[in-house]
Design the sequence.
């Protein structure tokens, strides 16, 4: 049901339930910081302001609007950005990087919400201003949600589907009353939504805004834009939230530059030359072998390791089950077993990785090595009949091979499963009952991905399966990913200690046919939908953990992803003039809290 929007002033009466305003909301439990907190624990309020930083990213951009499909596929970084900070556009509330899922006031100074979370009221900060000096108003909030409903991309376009009424309350508040379909996480997602200026946007032209430099309320302004190559941001000297607790010690630079490169190797070469100030390294062999250059030896480049307290996440080959070839779980299992992790880890990575066997490994949310509780079994329901007992009793493990790349015992299991699915080997080729070869393409986007895919190609050749490895540029990779135009693709599923609605985007049936979602595997299973619904409606921590573990077991048992590997550390190399607080938050290093030490010297 579409939201009913009241733009007239709504006056609360004695018959309306009224909750006390609060400075923060948490998904589970209470916020860690009190109402009078001074700053986030991972930010330094005494950090010097000034100086500059240059980031580098692989890709390009052809739009400065991150809220429409065009701006999603070739992304302009920094405008609305979880890594570099939301420099132009701001959310109603800001997420703390040091708690599983807690939001603190930003554009909304406070919120009001009942225990059952049937409504949420945002009370805007009267000091909030757009960069042109005009106030941020309740009308802007209402305008934004309507605009994104009609012209935005997922998930912004879906936010009002669970809103029964959106009402202006007094002069500076907006109240959302939810439908029965809304879950307990939904208020959190509303609070993370951006707010856009009604007076500066023409809805009819919003989807074609392209390189138009829109007005925001964030700490930076556009300085220079070179399409596809560079964006330079400059500090807004009149930024309204400089002294707000949630922003104190963040956004410390006077100037932020984001350079774009076609390949990661080109980006790293730019870092070596000093054209980029920070390089986040995700390759253990690269981290070990590639830093013997002059700037490192002289101390101008510093290498640091950070230890977040996060689950492993999942990086792996993803089966596109929209393809008929991959709709049989026996085929997916056979191809999963054939990947020789021990060979890859030894020959490509110097045995630095651990095998990933859960979407939430290394956390209490993981089902790995843990028998299913009665609560989990109840949630899994009829799906149990299609699950191997090892997934339920916690004993399932991916095979450990002899590391030759052709472990006969493991490959025999793959061949046997393919035979069950109707395949056989003829003249050295794996073919179906009609003689059609089992063959598919893996799309990769970098030399590192290509290297792993070529190793996998070698393993499958041993059982007569032919695959093609195709490495494409970043723009093509993003476009094909968003339109699901691939057989198999390498993807990384990040994980947090508070998974929620993003899991619906990844695994929910409704997301399967919606371009722009993260439904890379194309899952459509009512049983999984039922588990997903319990995740976002769980009240207590025990129910929440049971829901996540149930989902973990089912996903692993369905072999939608060939799990690869993970490592606990975060590796970052940077110029010595860049500094950060000594505290590493729960989610790892936080770039918005860093600063330029040369500014202190001034």
Sequence:
């Amino acid at each position: 049901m579409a939201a009913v929007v009241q733009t007239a002033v709504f006056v609360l009466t004695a018959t309306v339930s009224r909750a006390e305003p609060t400075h923060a909301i948490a998904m589970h439990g209470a916020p860690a910081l009190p109402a009078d907190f001074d700053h986030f624990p991972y930010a330094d309020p005494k950090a010097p302001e000034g100086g500059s930083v240059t980031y580098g990213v692989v890709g390009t951009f052809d739009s400065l609007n991150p809220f429409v499909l065009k701006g999603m596929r070739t992304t302009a970084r920094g405008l609305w950005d979880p890594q570099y900070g939301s420099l132009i556009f701001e959310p109603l509330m800001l997420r703390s990087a040091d708690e599983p899922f807690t939001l603190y006031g930003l554009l909304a100074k406070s919120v009001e919400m009942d225990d059952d979370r049937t409504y949420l009221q945002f009370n805007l900060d009267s000091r909030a201003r757009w960069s042109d000096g005009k106030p941020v108003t309740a009308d802007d909030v209402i305008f934004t949600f309507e605009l994104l409903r009609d012209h935005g991309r997922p998930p912004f376009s879906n936010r009002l589907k669970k809103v029964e009424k959106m009402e202006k309350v007094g002069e500076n508040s907006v109240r959302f009353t939810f439908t029965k379909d809304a879950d307990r996480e939904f208020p959190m997602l509303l609070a993370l939504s951006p707010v856009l200026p009604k007076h500066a946007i023409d809805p009819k032209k919003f989807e074609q805004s392209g390189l138009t430099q829109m007005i925001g309320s964030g700490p930076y302004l556009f300085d220079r834009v070179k399409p596809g190559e560079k964006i330079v941001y400059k500090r807004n000297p009149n930024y309204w939230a400089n002294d707000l607790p949630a922003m104190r010690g963040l956004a410390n630079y006077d100037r932020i530059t984001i350079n774009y490169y076609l390949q990661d190797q080109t980006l790293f070469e730019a870092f070596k030359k000093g054209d980029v100030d920070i390089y986040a390294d995700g390759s253990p062999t690269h981290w070990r072998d590639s830093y013997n250059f002059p700037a490192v030896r002289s101390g101008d480049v510093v290498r640091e390791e950070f230890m977040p307290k996060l689950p492993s996440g999942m990086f792996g080959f993803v089966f596109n089950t929209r393809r008929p070839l991959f709709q049989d779980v026996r085929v997916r299992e056979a191809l999963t077993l054939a990947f020789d992790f021990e060979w890859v880890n030894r020959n490509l990575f110097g045995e630095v990785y651990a095998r990933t066997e859960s979407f939430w490994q290394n956390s209490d949310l993981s089902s790995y090595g843990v028998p299913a509780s009665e609560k989990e079994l109840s949630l899994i329901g009829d799906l149990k009949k299609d699950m191997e007992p090892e997934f339920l009793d916690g004993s399932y493990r991916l095979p450990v091979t002899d590391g030759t790349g052709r472990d006969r015992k493991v490959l025999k299991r793959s061949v046997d499963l393919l035979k069950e699915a109707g395949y056989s080997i003829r003249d050295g080729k794996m073919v179906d009952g009609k003689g059609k070869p089992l063959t598919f393409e893996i799309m990769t986007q970098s030399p590192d991905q290509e290297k792993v895919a070529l190793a996998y190609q070698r393993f499958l050749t041993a059982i007569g399966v032919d695959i093609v490895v195709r490495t494409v540029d970043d723009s093509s990779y993003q476009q094909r990913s968003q339109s699901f135009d691939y057989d198999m693709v390498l993807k990384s599923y990040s994980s947090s200690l508070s998974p929620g609605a993003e899991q619906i985007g990844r695994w929910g049936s409704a997301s399967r046919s919606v371009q722009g979602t993260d439904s890379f595997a194309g899952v459509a299973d009512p049983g999984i939908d039922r588990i997903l619904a319990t995740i976002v409606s769980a009240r207590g921590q025990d129910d929440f953990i049971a829901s996540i573990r149930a989902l973990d077991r089912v996903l692993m048992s369905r072999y939608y992803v060939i799990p690869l590997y993970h490592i606990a550390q975060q590796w970052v190399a940077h110029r010595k003039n860049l500094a950060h607080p000594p505290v590493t938050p729960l989610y790892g290093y936080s770039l918005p809290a860093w600063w330029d030490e040369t500014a202190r010297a001034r």
Observations:
- The two ends are 57 Å apart (CA to CA).
- Confidence is low (pLDDT under 50) at residues 4-16.
- The first strand starts at residue 4 and ends at 10.
